[in-house]
Amino acid sequence: MGAMTAETWTADACSLVDAFRRGERSPREELERALAAIHSSSLNCFSYLDPERALEAADKADVTKPFGGVPVGIKELEAVKGWPQTEASLVFENRVATDTSTVVERLLDDGGAVPVGLTTASEFGGLNVSVTKLNGVTHNPWRHGKTTGGSSAGSAAAVAGGLVPIATGGDGGGSIRIPAGYTGLLGMKGTYGRIPRGPHAYFTPGTIVLGCLARSVRDAARYFDVCAGYDSLDPSSLPKRANWEANLGTNELKGKRVAIVPTLAGVTLEPGVEEQLRKNAEELITSTGMVEVDISIDVPNLAAQWMMGNLATLLADLGDRWPKCAPDLTDELMIGALLSQSMYNLRTAAVTEDLRVQAYQAMAGAFDEVDFIIAPTNPGPAFAADAATSSPSSSFIDSVKASTAGRIGFRTIMGGMRFAAAAFPKLPSAVLDQVSVRFPDLVRMGALTIISNIYGNPAVSIPSGLIDGLPVGMQVLARHHADELLFDVALAVERTNPWPMVAPST
């Protein structure tokens, strides 16, 4: 069996809580089913299990709490005291967490959820793929051998695969929405700061938002009720707002203005994606009484610059282990770190900030004209599970890692670039532009989703049918702090065109 067993709960988390409260299911029995399903699954979506702690929590579960007794997966980039804190990397293979992240504390304490274990992620959350040196390949429950995307790879596979009803996720460039799109789930990225990132909340690159991979809109809204709200350890976090779930369906969508922008950020789509997006978007607009508006959005593609800035946090995390630990890193992360170290100078930072302001202006201008922007979540359906990048063609990265000589040559070139950049500060930015043109796979990964991380506005991936038997997502963007409107847009789709809550058994 690649996905689920017949015994696990295949509806949403909220309905499981209802079943607990009615006495129809018990937290312990549900956990035992989940553990059995995980052990028999070939998805490879959990990197660590703690049955003893989970069984103790299930036996003590308070089902009056929002997620009381629900078995949950926790993305391995989140800290849980006493559990491995590997960040999906061989570099930290033996590290153990000494504290628990704020969001996990809230989910377990206030929410009452039962922690099953850690779900696999891409290394340090740096790529939208589901393969690492530490954990191997995570598979898509819709089709073994296909990716779940990343970085919340295991969380998406576990929820769509029927193993647990809900799992945590994080989205710094699309890492909730991308896997949600590939696995037919609801993936909500709230306004920047909506859910706190403490206790170790790096600011750079100022894009990371936490959330969950959910089967239903109400599950995601309930997750906001439990986990969102200010935390002093994350000064960028927003004040708590109540009643996300209770207020579902209360916002008037009729008359709201919508722009359909299939090629947001200039991304080239795979066959059938634009046609399906337009069909589903027009059905949504008609069913809600919204109004389609034709606008153009000239958004710069900041994927390469985002990558460069994001890797500063990686080097801070690695500390004095870098560069000796380079061989332990995924080749793509190692190459990215060398690129960033060699090319991210003051001039590159200036160009990046100028592009960021241009992006702000473009998005602000768009939201002056419309309430929502609809775009695909991903350029196409899921690609190969063992692929290092989302590009189907040979890439710059492939050419570098093709041989030992290629790796050594690249490191030599990057070392020389640091010296050249000192004399010619504009050189790295110019080289980066040329690399982006010649090797578009570097800027294609997540380009449809990254703009909402850069700008900080909320965006949601809603299941939008199948292409070649694999799920695709419709991404809806809204202006800052309009998260509740996106929940209601997703709810409108869920009511008129409900999606499968789990993948078909294979």
Care to describe what's here?
By secondary structure, this protein is α/β, with parallel strands linked by helices. Helix content is 40%, strand content 13%. It has helices at residues 13-22, 27-40, 51-59, 102-110, 153-160, 177-183, 217-227, 273-288, 303-318, 331-343, 346-369, 396-401, 404-423, 427-438, 441-444, 447-455, 483-496, and strands spanning 46-49, 71-75, 114-119, 131-132, 136-137, 166-171, 186-189, 209-214, 257-260, 291-292, 372-376, 459-467, 470-478. The strands form two sheets. It has an eleven-stranded mixed β-sheet, with helices on both faces. A two-stranded antiparallel ribbon has the order 4-5. Helix 2 packs antiparallel against helix 3, helix 7 (217-227) runs antiparallel to helix 17 (483-496) and helix 10 (331-343) packs parallel to helix 13 (404-423). The chain starts with 12 loop residues before the first helix and ends in a 10-residue tail after the last helix.
Residues in helices, as a percent range: 25-40%
Low-confidence segments, given as residue ranges, are 1-5, 412-425
Span from first to last CA?
6 Å
Largest beta sheet: what is the strand line-up? Answer: 1-3-2-6-8-7-12-13-11-9-10
Helix/strand order: HHEHEHEEEHEHEEHEHEHHHEHHHHHEEH
Class derived from helix and strand content: alpha/beta
- Approximate shape: globular
The description of the largest β-sheet is: 11 strands, mixed
* Distinct helical segment count: 17
Question: Radius of gyration from the CA trace?
Answer: 22 Å
Q: How many β-strand stretches?
A: 13
Strand content: 5-15%
Mean pLDDT across all residues, rounded? 89
